[in-house]
Amino acid sequence: MRHDEIAAVEGLRQYLLSKGMRVEPREDGEDPPDFYLTVEGERFAVEVTNLIDEIEAKGADIPRLSYTNSVHKLASDIEKESRKAETLKGHYVLWVNGPFDDFAQFRKHIKSKSMAFLEQTKNTSPEDGEYLLAADETGAILTTCFPDQTPEYLQGVSAVFCSISKKENSPDRLSLVITSPQFTDWEKEIELDACRLLQRSISAKCDKLKDITSRRILLLPDLSRFMDIKVYQKCVGKLHGLENFHSIFVSDAGGATVSIHGPW
């Protein structure tokens, strides 16, 4: 199993222990299942699969996790190289609002502009500038760097895709903030989104585990970092195929675990 799956398994074990249950060390499975877990003397078949949402960018579906990993890698590269160049002098915030078309194309551009901005502002106060990657009302991409003065936001800008700004003179670090207009209007849509993800995983695993005779547990790590995993509990009563599993759990990247279905 991958590192993230092992973390999810440990999160499940801690969850069950917190309920006062006896949990024995896991046993490797035959894939399927991924492993066996004996709880209160009963041996369960446990299947682990990541809940990876999809986002639409440039007319094609890509894993949301792949996009966020790309953005995190960009921020990490900027911080690492600016430390090496001794230009990271203060607390900077890189803000990315996406996904947006041609992120791969603009990645190098964002990096080079950000590195230039760090060089130009390393000895200045936090109020002295901001770099923007934006689009005008026609959708054309605009890039502007303000190394010497506080920018006045451009007239005609319809969307800002990313920015880097200096917030404090210390500590020397780069923070990353990821937002998205596609992901922030969740009051009406997040529950549908979460339930769709759960149903897809449940349906796929029902077929995969059809020959397993042991009672089954489905463990679903959500590594997207975009939503509180408790939202999945709102899907109870809206899902099909639950009768094929003794229990279903969702965990986050930190190992926190919630029960979606079952007696635990």
The major pleated sheet works out as: 6 strands, mixed
Q: How is the largest sheet built, in terms of strand order?
A: 1-2-3-11-12-13
Number of domains: 2
Record field, number of beta strands: 13
The CATH topology of the largest domain corresponds to: Trna Endonuclease, Chain: A, domain 1
Radius of gyration computed on alpha carbons: 23 Å
Helix fraction bin? 25-40%
Question: What this model shows, in words?
Answer:
With 264 residues, the chain is α+β, with helices and mostly antiparallel strands. It has 2 domains: 3-54 and 184-261, Trna Endonuclease, Chain: A, domain 1 (3-Layer(aba) Sandwich); 89-171, no CATH class. The protein is built from 5 helices and 13 strands. The strands form 3 sheets. A 6-stranded mixed sheet has the order 1-2-3-11-12-13, sandwiched between helices. Strands 8-7-9-6-10 form a 5-stranded mixed sheet. Strand 12 (247-251) and strand 13 (257-261) form a beta hairpin. Helix 2 packs parallel to helix 3 (103-121). The two termini are 24 Å apart. Residues 183-187 have low confidence and may be disordered.
